[in-house]
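Sequence only, no structure available. Ideas?
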Amino acid sequence: MSTAVSTAPPADALRTALHVDGWSTGAFGVVMLSGAAALRDPLGLPTAWSIPFGVAMLGGALALVLIAGYPRIPAGHARAVVAVNALSAVGMVGLAFSGVLELTGLGVAFLLTGAAVVAAFAAIEYAALRRVTR
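Reply:
I predicted one. Tokens follow.
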């Protein structure tokens, strides 16, 4: 059964969280793309990783803003956002400690901070979704 989140005031929190997540993801994607070479040495993050991450973040940002713009946010879309954010946070923690990349200490901190921010968005969006789908 497909449901949609209403347009009532409780849905405003979800819509706002999706918008903020989308715009901040987009801004960070631009930083990853435009600063790929400059971030390489301080973080230990190769440009061959920064550029695809930046492109993926721009695509994700577009999806988030589009979902937030629906008159009635499809609950399945919102659940997918929560799941992708949660998986992204876990992936960033795993990548930080996997040794796949020769990250500097600052690079590890960078990924862990990103994981914390993404996990926070997942939690906020999950809580907002629960309030509107009860």
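The helical segments are 9-34, 36-43, 47-69, 75-98, 105-133.
Hope that gets you unstuck.
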